[in-house]
Amino acid sequence: MHPAFFRKFLLFAELDDRELAAIAAVAKPRRYAKDEVVFHADEAGDVFCLIREGRVKVTMTSPEGKEIILSTMGPGDFFGEMSLIDNEPRSASVIATERLDLVTIWRTDFLQILSENFSITRKLLAVLSRRLREASARIESLATMDVYGRLARYFLDLAAQQGKILDNGYVSVVRPTHQSIANTIGTSRETVSRLIHDLMKQNLLLSEGKTIYLKKDALEQFRAEL
Ligand code: CMP
Asked: CB–CB of 170/225 below 8 Å?
């Protein structure tokens, strides 16, 4: 892989050519098909992963076998850092939800890169802080909101991450499956389908092919009430 390729990752944005070449020398590509498991929770971890193309979901399984989605990630995001930093087993499973193209770095190389480049360490800590904030917000909404509120918050977060504002008063996002929404907000697929049907009846949400459209005013009003 060409060193300049690594500059696209925010984590490496401040490195000079020599430092990028050092990363390129130890990084290896890995590919996964849709639905393939990259890591299983609880297994030993020895590699750090950056997403070049595709998406993953980070999941845990409840004692009854239900999937809980902790997060989803896409191009430019990274995962697998926790086991390398704390020497504990993988904290969650990571599963490809699309064809996945990764860049991987082995434990010893990763730890050496962190010790030599404070700019990378600081960016990594910033991302870990953001993930902790998101997890706290999730705990708050599970503890204080009903399922309708959690669904509204889910759409608000989705719109903030990837929404495109359109002229007609709606924000478009890629349509997640009802099952994956349910597994993210801690409810059943049937409940998600029923609530989405209600939102559609009120024209707060429109669905077309792989896209859904969320009414911008309603999102803003919900954000103001949070
Ligand atoms: P690791 O524990 O090595 O393997 C699983 C990875 O999933 C973990 O590193 C993190 O990169 C990622 N991960 C675990 N929990 C969360 C979470 N709550 N939010 C986002 N990412 C997570």
From this structure: no
